[in-house]
Amino acid sequence: MRFLVRRLLALGGVLIASSMIVFGGLYLAPGSPEQFLVQGRTVSPEVLAAIRSQYSLDDPLPVRYWNWLSGLFTGDMGRSLLTQQDVGTLIASRIPTTLSLAAFAAVLIIVAGIGLGILAGTRGGVAERIVIFASNLGIAVPTFFAALVLMWVFSVGLGWFPVFGAGDGVVDRVWHLTLPASALSLPSIAVVARITRTAIVEESESEHVLIAVARGLPKRITVWRHTVRNSLLPVTTAVGMQIAGLIAGAFVVEYAFTLDGIGALLVNSVQRKDFAVVQAIALIMVVAFGIVNLVVDLLYAVIDPRVSLKKGQ
Amino acid sequence: MNKKLISAGAAGLLLLLTGCNGGAAAKAPDALNSKDLLVTTPAATTNLDKIVWNNNFGEPPSIDPIKSADYPASAVVSNLCESLFQIQPDFSIKPNLAKSAKSVDNITYVYELQSGVTFWDGKPMTADDVVFSLKRHLDPKEISYWASDVTANIASVDKTGPNEVTVKLKSPDATFNNQLATPIGAVVEQAQREKAGVDYGNPGAGVMCTGPYSVGEWKQGASITLNRYDGYWNTAKKAKTKQIEIQFITDPSSIANALATGAIDGSYDVPLSAISQLSKSTNGQLFYGKSLQNMAIISTGTGTLGDPAVRKALTLATDREAIAKTVFEGTSTAAQSLVPNGGWNYGGSIFEDARKNLPSTTPNLDEAKKVLKDAKVDLSKPIKIVYPIDRTFYADIISEFANAGAKLGLTIEPSGVPGAQFGAFFSDPKARAGADAFVTTNYMNVADPLIHLGAIAGPNGMQNYSGFSDPQITDLLAKAKATSDDDARARLTVQAEALIMDKEPWLPVVDSSTRLFMSKRITGVPASFVYLYYPWAADLGGTGK
Q1: DSSP labels for A242-262?
Q2: CA distance B329 to B31
Q3: Which residue from A42, A259, A261 is facing B462, i.e. has the nearest CB?
Q4: What is the number of other CB atoms lying within 10 angstroms of the CB of residue B472?
Q5: What is the pLDDT of residues A123-149, one digit of tens each?
Q6: Residues of chain A neighbouring B249 (CB-CB closer than 8 A)
Q7: Paired sense of beta strands B223-228 and B93-95, if any
Q8: Residues whose CB falls within 8 Å of the CB of residue B42, separated by 6 or more in sequence, listed in order
Q9: Which of B140, B263, B430 sits opposite A30 (nearest CB)?
Q10: Angle between helices A87-108 and A170-204 in degrees, nearest 10
Q11: β-strand B48-54 against B241-247: which pairing, if any?
Q12: What is the pLDDT of residues A38-63, one digit of tens each?
């Protein structure tokens, strides 16, 4: 329990620090937001002044930070400069797409990444060499490139999958998101597969496995109970990190496949210096990252009880 | 892996590889003859239930007409909210919600309103709505992106009869009615505007207008659906298609794929990189239309390029016809003026004849060297030209200028910046500092050369980025603005044009054509560049195929 409280406090500290960075960072970029809004048209100074006052752009930075932070606790994330919309509503309409995409990709990472890693680590031979080669390729290929190739082969060439949109309803959505999720998860699958393989190979050379083998236990038991289970610790960390990174990496895929997620929204908002939206999304990403990390730490404790004992004393 | 899969993958790779060359290495197609450019496409013969279109520039931030000042919003709002005047596919400007306009002195304009016009909620459009809508530009709290020297010139707007509105100007402006064909003249319902508050124009509250389509479902980040308004006042122009779903795909390869596979029925301004793929399509057809767009290099007025002699010499030495042929895949022509070819709706022969006296677009190195002798700046300093790095074709254009510059002993440095940063060049003088020039794809709002030249080279011009000012030009522009006779105004404008082209505040590169793609099953939209302010979707229907 104390372990959990300490981790939550640490998460809070990280959130406050990153919210300051997020809030201040956007002010350093060139160009003022009201100038971006009018797209270079020479509008009257009164109009520019009206925009500045409507969005409190003239208040000192600490005051604006405080207003923003206190607003967050009442659920008020401000209004988009660009669309005049309530930021909460705006983001809420985009989150389902990104979450489905990330969840789909996470499933692919866990199933394909760990699956391929176990295959390579336990079988050896040709299977191992193929997995190693494919994972090298998977790590090297940029996501946008994978997205383009997948789209060309399976959407344009074969016509099996749609070229844009996120779909409505469960089946349609899975159909629409298959290629984007594959492109998004490809590098992570490669990383997880390699780490899983390495962990298994190391574990299978450890004393207790060698002893188990020497005692003549059936292979099924030595592999699953002694090798795979014990090698899950580093794998859990790797999977957690990869999944946490998905939301941040989603924007490339969302852009390529024209999905209405928060990644695409973030890119658009950064380009237009839409402060309130960028700040809210950046904070959501930090929170998501923090929560996934917390979950990983808790999982650690479940897999290996010694972890929580050591940290919680 | 079956054969189809392999060939599709190989084709994908090939496309990606050739894409890296920016298309410049491809075989040059024949140059487009500007006389062959289309105004319309064959009229629709059948009504359809639904058409899927794409807005290549993305999602509108707002559909409030006074906030639609760029491609993403204007191309959608043009079907929703109408103005007092309207630009037609042939670029002529006709009365629209205003039935007629009377003016005696270029200062007072009396508009009789069209009767029987209703908003989508069925309520009639009144003179009060018109007065309210025009006055929105004068209220800083409304944040009109169209508040400009044009609207600042309005002295008063009054209802002077049950169906009549009178506008008084502070100083004469013969272009005023033409300006009312843009969102400056857009009419919205006063009651709904006031009720909507800060949510006005966003997906929550929307707008209330009189156009042939009303706003249907707006899926944020994905699409907006327009529904035909069956009570539309202009029964001759009633929309032919019940629903138009407008997608917001911006990635060039995704656009090409969606059009090629038929997932999307049509789109204006298809990306240059998609031209070769789409011109071979069996699924639909590419159309090239008359345009009000051009591509130019904007001088910041500083550095080596700040000297008019350098600008002129560089333009003379550059093979802009080659740029039109290769970089633009033959979809453009070399530009003679900053006024796009054919971009006028009055004084036709006057503007056309003036072209013969403007310098030719054929490169002339000897002449360029002669002109450069007049330069008073340090010619050894490099000329930095900025472009958005995600638009690689700009790099090809600048490299053609660099080749020409090298022959003159000038060093040209292309400088690519991220798209987000590039936007600041149009709005923030601080961002421009240190750059000699930046590129632009520009357009005329309406086909009036006087408005356009005034914006670029006039003292308070909306697009005068270098503080360009020349007393003789300023004088001519003002004189033209106060001249009500069309031909007389055209003659003054032509004089100003010649002087401006001699100084070249911007370096003209090419006049574009409008690149329109439609699938076989649909037809009817204008092929010309009027989709920002003309309700193009209402003309869209079926071919019967």
Answers
A1: HHHHHHHHHHHHHHHTT--SH
A2: 8
A3: A42
A4: 10
A5: 778 888 888 888 888 888 887 788 888
A6: 164, 258
A7: unpaired
A8: B523, B524, B543
A9: B430
A10: 50
A11: parallel
A12: 665 666 677 778 777 777 777 787 88
Quote the CA–CA distance of A30 and A86 in Å, as a whole number.
Answer: 25
CA separation for the pair B214, B210 (Å, rounded) = 8
**CA separation for the pair A293, B154 (Å, rounded):** 61
Which residue of chain A comes nearest to B258, CA vs CA? A163
Query: Is A94 an interface residue toward B (CB < 8 Å)?
Result: yes
Residue with tokens 């590419």: B286
* Closest-CA distance of chain B to residue A294, Å: 31
Strand partners, B218: B224
Q: What is the pTM of this model?
A: 0.82
Q: What secondary structure does DSSP assign to B42-98, as a single string?
A: PPP-B-EEEEEEE-TT---S---GGG--SHHHHHHHTTT--BSEEE-TTS-EEESSE
User: Nearest residue on chain B to A167, judged by CA atoms?
Assistant: B222
Report chain A residues whose CB lies below 8 A from the CB of B4.
Answer: 157-158
Confidence tier at B12 by pLDDT (50, 70, 90):
very low
B254/A166 CB distance under 8 A:
no
Token output for A190? 């490669």
Residue B246, Cβ density class (10 Å: 0-12 exposed, 13-18 middle, ≥19 buried): buried
Residue B9: its chain A contacts at CB < 8 A? Answer: 149, 152-153, 157
Structure tokens that stand for B161 in this block: 């009869």
Query: CA B245, B250, B251: angle at the middle one, nearest 5?
Result: 130
